[in-house]
Amino acid sequence: MSQVQGGIGIINLSAGDPSLVNEIKELGGEELLECIQCAKCAAACPMVLAGFPFFNKRVIQAILLGLRDALLDDSSIWACQSCNRCTEVCPREVNPFEIIQAMRRVAIREFALPTLAIEGLKSLYDTGHAVYLAGAGNTRAKVGLPEKPPSTLSYPEALKEVRTILENTELAELGVIPMGESGVTDSCEV
Amino acid sequence: MKVGFFIGCNTSFNRPDLEQAVRHAFPALGIELDDLEGQSCCPTWGTLPSVDVVGWCAVSARNHTIAEQKGLDIVTVCGSCYGSLSEAKYKMEVDPELKAKVNEVLQTIGREYKGTSNVRLTYYYLYHEIGPEKIRASLKYTLGGLKVALQPGCHTLWPSKVYYDKEEDPFHPRVLKEMVEALGATVGHYTRLIDCCGMGAMRSTDMEKSLNLFRRKILSIKEEVDPDLIITGCSSCLIQFDTAQEMLRREKKINFEIPVLHFMQALAICLGADPEKVAGLARTNVKSVIGKILPS
To answer: Taking the model in full, what pTM does it have?
Structure first.
């Protein structure tokens, strides 16, 4: 059953998942319980101006209520701009942005991530660049630059290093993207 | 003077004219650029930072070690790279346990992160290392007579604790204004100056909401400044301002166009660069405004 019941916005508190709090704290949101819901972060947040249902303060509130499904069913956390206005203004040093990142980490562990995030990670593994445009060689040549930047694209041994790092971190254990020998990504704009 | 140039994905592939602008302006001001060969994605927020902290910091730290081995600081022209690289460095500084875990991962590729290179944003670097007065004296052309609106960009400002170069008050930024004034332009203030442009994760997630946010900002610019040119401090803001106006015009949600350049592009043009190379990929009509900068 959904934790937030459709239409009338009634939240069934007894359906909340108390384990979410610890999970968030373990995945980088250490200061979660410092939050007093003062909403200073919300006043500074572009997500509020843009009209997303969940933004820093509400994400924290939903986590504290254990509303895991409500957060996973909504794409708001993926729209966070990482602008860190909230981190700057928070009077309790909660680092609200870190809590949103931690919630993304929870979502990824439940495979509830947007296609674009998967494509970005795959592109990072395949090319060393999360944003990669296959036709960029022509664009670069047009302004008088070599077709490839002096990055992992030009230095295969550097790409190998990036892949080794990725293969030795949690990304590999989570199995979100295929690793090993892989095809070349055409384009990816995160 | 020499510094490592961290180009970033969007600048490399989307707006390499901006890369060219940096490659022209820095040497013209006496600063040699090092290519930091083998650099990768910073990595950007929607990827590894959203997966786990150690993985994020390990890829970031690898980029840092390339500069560290050469004894150089890093400059970047992209707000996201600036934010991600600076934040990872800060995290490893305040959390030695994290740094140790990252170095365990880096051992697999024979690298060690020390934390000795600073991360700088192009125009802050120039502001502090060269200074507006010297820059003014080096110009071949100026933005004299032009009215400009600014877009500093989120990642240049917050969270201030992670950045090497700080504004006195990040909610009232001054550095970009002083730098644009050094190029000879008149800078107009508008109330939504520090609002987010809507590029990045928001645009990837919900184009309509991103465009509405952008519209609020561009209308404030039009009504309160009505500038000849918008100058951004961030490459992502550049892309949003340069492409979103066209999208809004197509939807009949705005009926004007304001040309947009990144600060480094405006600077490079004033230093005598070929506009086709340093601003040739602009979608907004920058030709007319460049015509006013260069002598006919």
So the answer is: 0.95
